[in-house]
Amino acid sequence: MVKYFLFLKKILMNSLFGTYECKVDAKGRLPLPAGVKKQLAEVMEDGFVLKRAIFQQCLEIHPIAEFRAKMAKINKLNRFIRKNDEFIRRFTAGVREVEVDANSRLQLSKDLIGFAKIDKDVVLVLNIDVIEVWDKEEYEKVVSADFESFADLAEEVMGNQNDEFELS
């Protein structure tokens, strides 16, 4: 649990960021680029959880301690409420614990590769506390979407933020 809090502290101070292209080999092994390894150095040996994304057709890689914290919240849901039971089932569908091998690769399972339509070329997107794994063509479709739609979304999500700036 201490490592989790150290990870959270690191994320709050230095959120994961960056976009990296790489290739998955025929056996489903995903090499982690140097920039990714550097950002994950403190949690690399603990392992990760690989799962389906909720809102997109991509995969997510979570540091295991961070995923366990999410599961602790989910475990509080009442399974006798149908929506909760369905959510838990879908949230955990295809979840795999994975470790980085000696060659700095993660093994992607065939069912998750199929879910995300991953062929060979992939894009890793580091987003604050999670790494998204996208098929390159699918990623390009999503990020190339209508610019005006994104501008409207940015305004809606971030436009009401009252940032306080320190004057030095």
From TrEMBL:
Species this protein is from: Weeksella virosa (strain ATCC 43766 / DSM 16922 / JCM 21250 / CCUG 30538 / CDC 9751 / IAM 14551 / NBRC 16016 / NCTC 11634 / CL345/78)
Superkingdom of the source species: Bacteria
Keyword Repressor annotated: no
One GO BP annotation of this record: negative regulation of DNA-templated transcription initiation
InterPro entries xrefs: MraZ, MraZ_dom, MraZ_N, MraZ_sf, SpoVT-AbrB_dom, SpoVT-AbrB_sf
Family the UniProt entry places it in: Belongs to the MraZ family.
UniProt keyword annotations, A-Z: Cytoplasm, DNA-binding, Repeat, Transcription, Transcription regulation
Compartmental location: Cytoplasm, Nucleoid
Predominant cellular place of this UniProt entry's protein: cytoplasm
An example Gene Ontology CC term for this record: nucleoid
Domain SpoVT-AbrB as annotated: residue spans: 19-66, 95-138
Subunit structure: Forms oligomers.
PANTHER family: TRANSCRIPTIONAL REGULATOR MRAZ
Record has Transcription as a keyword: yes
Gene: mraZ
Taxonomic classification: Bacteria, Pseudomonadati, Bacteroidota, Flavobacteriia, Flavobacteriales
Stated name of the protein: Transcriptional regulator MraZ
Alphabetized GO MF terms: DNA-binding transcription factor activity; transcription cis-regulatory region binding
